[in-house]
Each structure stands twice: as C-alpha cells, then as structure tokens.
Amino acid sequence: MRGRRVLLAVLAAGVLVPAVTSAGPQGFAPKWRVGDWWIVKSRMGSLAGHGQRQWQYDRYDVLSMDKIGGRRCYVLQQGMTESPGSGPRKLYYLRADDFRIVRKVEYFRQAGKLVGPCTSDFPEETAGPDPGELLPLFPLRSATAQDSAFRHYVKGGYLRQVSGPADSALLRNCLNDPDTSRGHSVQPRGGRMYSVLCESGTPRDSATVAYVYSLQLWSTDYPWRVYEEWGQYTPPGSSSRQSNCRSWLIAVGHTEK
Fold first, then answer.
1. 196: which strand partners?
2. Which of 12, 104, 125, 190 could join 100 via S-S bond, C-beta 3.0 to 4.6 A?
3. Is a pLDDT exceeding 80 seen at residue 214?
C-alpha cells in the first residue's frame, strides 16, 4: 500500500517530470527479433479497492515480418498462455521503424465458437495510452523536447507524451509485485530504464475534458515494457484520478524459427 500511495502521489502532480541525465531516452526503441516471446500478467480493476479485481496472463510472440502499405512490419501475436496460437488471440502489425499499429487481426469466442479472422486497418497509425495494445511514440525523444503538449491527434483526441530516465524510487514502487504465485516481475539487469507518461483526452475547447493516462517503464534489457499502470482522470483536480489496470512483465525468451 505504501508503494501504491507513493506512485499515485507522483502521478497526481499531473506531469511526470524525469530528471535530466546523460542517460536520456533520445532514440530509444525496443529491439525485436522473430522468435522473441514474453509473458505479461495484469491486474484488472480499481486499485483503490472499488470494483472487482482479477488477474490475467497473456503471452506475446513475434511471429514474422510482413509488409503493409510498402512498410516493413512486425507481426506480434497476443494470446492466452495456455494456448497462445489456437484460442482467442490478436495479431498486431506494427511498423518496424516506429512501432505504430497499422492492422489488427482478431479471433474471439462467440456462442461457444471461435470466430475470425476479423481484420481492422488503422491508416492513422494508432498510438496512445489504451491498456495493453498501444505503445508510446517511438523512438523516444530527449528530455529537452520530451513534452509533446497534446500536439499529436489520435483516436478522436490529442496525445501527450513525456519521457525520461526512471529514478530508483519510481522503479522500487512500480516493480513491487503484489503477487508472485505465478511468476515474479522481471527486475532491471543493469540496462537503462526509462519512464514514459502518455495522456490522451478530448480537445481543450470541449465542454467536458477527460483524460486517460498510461505510465510505462521500459528497459534496454527487455523487448517489452516491464510495467504499466493505466487509468483515467478529469482535471484539474487529481482526486478524480483512478487506476484501472496494472501489468508486469514476468518472463522473456526466444524460440529459433
């Protein structure tokens, strides 16, 4: 509980301002190879104790490379850990240069039967703080130009992104895994750690301004974020901020293709 309160207090300031150091995030993007895989566990529901909470485990596999609109893309599969390639699953086509999602192919259960493939194309190259699916704007920018100030228009709203080195207190609180019964969260192995705060919301001149945020921690040691917290709030008061999901990276590996 102490770690959670500290984390929410950091977020309550409205902007996560990382310290400027020589180990800035300029140019950072995750490195993937075909055959890479990882497992993420997520805790769904309000962190404040309201509403039902449940654990979810997902496996991600970099299946192949493909081309969409003449651009090279990773094909990333997300599925259940028990049957990642045969049950309900999603295939994401992400551009290799900036990791924007340009296509999603989904298989899901309906009336007891597996339905799919259902394909959605995203010509606007989706980005933003939605939990699980969307990634930050890669490559990350340096601390001197880190605040995009809602200049990116995506998904009916504006996106803001602030990134920089993650300090030790933030790492300690975020990586304090509350449940280790099915795997511990991975820990830093000496590589550089970056924090990324993404916020998206309705245009500022709208009658109702609401924001969704995602706080993510990335490491040069791993192909996926080691931590994410996702939630929503209505400014200017921080008391309305609500965390809906937290997730931890618990396993990584590589299978030769």
1. 163, 216
2. 125
3. yes
Which amino acid type is present at position 179?
D
Is 150 exposed, middle or buried (CB count within 10 Å of its CB: 0-12, 13-18, 19+)? Answer: middle
Q: Where exactly are the structural domains of the chain?
A: 2-254
> Bigger pLDDT: 128 or 108?
108
Tokens of 124: 């606007």
Cα–Cα distance measured from residue 222 to residue 80, given in angstroms and rounded to the nearest whole number: 20
Query: 238 or 127: which carries more pLDDT confidence?
Result: 127
Q: What is the mean pLDDT of residues 42-57?
A: 66
- Nearest residue to 216 (alpha-carbon basis) of 130, 142, 148, 151: 130
Q: Is pLDDT at 227 greater than 90 in this prediction? A: yes
The residues with which 105 forms a beta bridge, in sequence order, are 91, 119
127 falls in which pLDDT band (50, 70, 90)?
low
Judge contact between 231 and 243, C-beta under 8 A.
yes
142, 163 contact by CB (below 8 A): no
